[in-house]
Amino acid sequence: MRRRPLFAVRAVLAVSSLLLMTACAGSVDVVPPDPETADGASQEACADLSAELPDQIVGQESRTTSPDSAQTAAWGEPAIIMRCGVARPATLNASAQLITVDGVDWFAEELTAGYLFTATGRTAYVEVTVPDKYAPEIGPVTELSPLVANAVPQQENSLPESP
Q1: In angstroms, rounded to a whole number, what is the distance separating the alpha carbons of residues 84 and 2?
Q2: Helices (DSSP H) in the chain: which residue ranges?
Q3: Phi, psi torsion values for 118, nearest 5 degrees
Q4: Kind of pairing, strands 72-75 and 28-29?
Q5: Theoretical Cys-Cys bridge with 162: which of 43, 95, 99, 140, CB 3.0 to 4.6 Å?
Q6: Which residues pair with 110 in a beta bridge?
Q7: Does the pLDDT at position 141 exceed 90?
Q8: How many angstroms separate the CA atoms of 21 and 146, rounded?
Q9: Taking every pair of C-alpha atoms in the chain, what is the biggest distance, in angstroms?
Q10: How far is CA 125 from CA 9, 20, 83, 95, 132, in A?
Q11: What letters, b where the CB count within 10 A reaches 16 and e where it falls short, cover 23-56?
Q12: Residue 42: closest CA among 96, 93, 90, 83
């Protein structure tokens, strides 16, 4: 008779551990932008953008980010990652080629396995990392552009002069 309660306790612990591991597996580690790069207008714009983010991007479900931050979001596996309030990309200059989608200018940088897009000319720089699994990688940017246009006000960029 003593074995049944012990077996039941072990079963409950095993199921609880499995559920906890499953819940944790859905989180994506994302480094939030450096708070020193975001002024009040940038933080407000990022909060507005965060409130508008959809549950899906290019058919991929949203995922929680760790640490939890209103300046980060993720969708899919591998994760499409958005960070709002990042620093201006070091390679962005006055002669940089930009892609305009729904009134938002994006600076694209090719990565080893995908692209990094950064929205420019706004009160906050918004960065979207798109793994090559989602080729053409512009898809998530196309879906996010109207939200960025609505939530993150335009601002003149102070780009360095081209060399």
Answers
A1: 57
A2: 3-25, 40-52, 138-151
A3: -125, 120
A4: unpaired
A5: 95
A6: 115
A7: yes
A8: 36
A9: 83
A10: 51, 35, 9, 18, 22
A11: eeeeebebebbeeeebeeebbbbbebbbeebeee
A12: 83
- Assign 157 a pLDDT band (cuts: 50, 70, 90): low
Which of 124, 128, 145 minimizes the C-alpha distance to 41?
A: 124
The pLDDT tens digits for 84-135 are: 999 999 999 999 999 999 999 999 999 999 999 999 999 999 999 999 999 9
- Separation CA 62–CA 30 (nearest Å): 14
What are the residues whose beta carbons fall under 8 Å from the beta carbon of 70, sequence distance 6 or more? 46, 47, 50
Nearest to 83 by CA among 63, 60, 65: 65
Pairing of strands 80-86, 72-75: antiparallel
Give the whole-angstrom CA distance, residue 124 versus residue 50: 13
